[in-house]
Amino acid sequence: MATFSEFMRMARLGREDRTSGKRMRQILSIVRKYHITKGITPQQAVSLLEELGPTYVKIGQMASTRSDILPKEYCEAFEQLHADVTPMPFEEVKRCLDEAYGKPWAEVFLAIDPTPLGSASIAQVHKAVLFDGSVVAVKVRRPGIVEQMSQDIALMKKLLATAEFFSSEHQVILLNFENLVDELERTTANEVNFDIELNNLIRFRIEIENCDGISSPIPYPQLSNESVLVMEYVDGIPIDDVKALKKEGDDPRVLANRLVQNYISQVLDHGFFHADPHPGNIVIRRKEIVWIDLGMVGTLTGSERQLVGRMFRSVATNDPFMLMEAVIGISRQHGEVDEGKLMGKLSQLLEKYGSADLSEINMGEAFSEMIEVMRGQNLIMLPSVTMLVRGLMTIEGVLDDIAPRTNVMDVVSEHVMMQSLDPKHMEMRATELANSSLRSVEAITKLPAQLTNTLTMLNRGELAMRGDVKVDEHALSTVYASVGRLSLALISVGLFLGSSIICTTNMQPKLLEVPLIGFLGFLGAFVLGVYVIVVVFKSRHAMKNNQKVD
User: Fold this and answer.
1) What is the pTM of this model?
2) Which of 230, 245, 273, 291 satisfies CB 3.0 to 4.6 Å to 250 for a cystine?
3) SS3 128
4) Do residues 303 and 268 make contact, with C-beta atoms less than 8 angstroms apart?
5) For residue 285, what is the enclosing H or E element?
6) In this structure, are residues 153 and 188 in contact, taking their beta carbons and an 8 Å threshold?
């Protein structure tokens, strides 16, 4: 049965959503056009997502990193969605710029190249020249994109609410889809607002200021707003163009190692990382790695960073208890968690990967198995950690293209172990230990008084104790069956005693000179007694053969 809250949620979404009917007809029309019930090729799937619109292109981009779920050929095809979306006409770009600045674009830029540098689902980028001669990249948001994506997400929410309303089954699957839609809503809200990306650029440059061989574009806040972002133009080689890199004298293995080291530093040292590190967003400029397109970033709180670091450290040191603590810490619970079973499953994973060389571990496969274990224990990763996992899997794919022998787990383990020896980290750990020790001492000093107060309250009847004991289902069924047979036996004894008393009277009518009621009572007692004896022997036989007792 649907709950009242589910009914109210469905009603609220229906009241707020005025366009889903029209949009749904559009979607069904496009889907029918591709005849997906008869199968669809990877390239047709790309075309379908492009035609469905930017929201579905974004879903395709997210799916391109999930080789653990989708066939490899589909993941490779979906990679096109990162940059090869059909561009909008230059006349439309100029109109968008005029509207964004409230004046002709020619008063802001000396010149703009009509051929886009790249065209994505949300925006496209053009090379331009400022009046001072600076060469910049201008990112222009597609018109109507905010409204369209909002409509699509509202429709997805409505469909999920309808599914939850009419079905009480598959709640875990529906919850996973709900989390996916929430993540999609959050990331797209950040990506369509270029003020957020501008702030990301500014912060990212501060974070990597002291990193050798790492850079990002210089932002131009005075020329940027919500729908237009202006930044330094980066002229370089995409990191996956190995031939061009070698031609320039770059060593892909050195670049790969520096790339992973910096990414892990972003995650564990700063808690602010590039969440979409596909090859199109990583450029090599004069042996320097330049991170571009900061529209999608991930952030980790201090405690989340510690938990992620602890998770990696537990893998490096083969510590299942530490791994279980970290997994629970980076997850949301949506049901009961059996910590014993969880640690057992995680121990099996560590045993599987602990016997392998770190360089042989596929991070995507390892994370996929861990997520399956978590799902079996009603745990769902926090959205920030999900973004990190997707980013690491993307980085692993980049390494496969440019330096297959470089392994993410090797670099992660090395960084985590080095971090544990860092004076700042040791100081932080010492502070945590001191605080924990002080709390423990304080708790110990309070224990006698607390124990005395508790015993006093129990003595006065002011405190009640309640226990929750779990009994095996097989044992419960045995107890229920035994109680039932005992009840029947007592009834049989009661009938026998009652009939015996009746037989001493002269109660009419009689049968064979015995009161009829007494006779029937004896008969009932005999039948019940025989039944109980037969059932007891059957139960004894079932228990000996380890069968369920009925």
Assistant:
1) 0.65
2) 245
3) strand
4) no
5) strand 282-285
6) yes
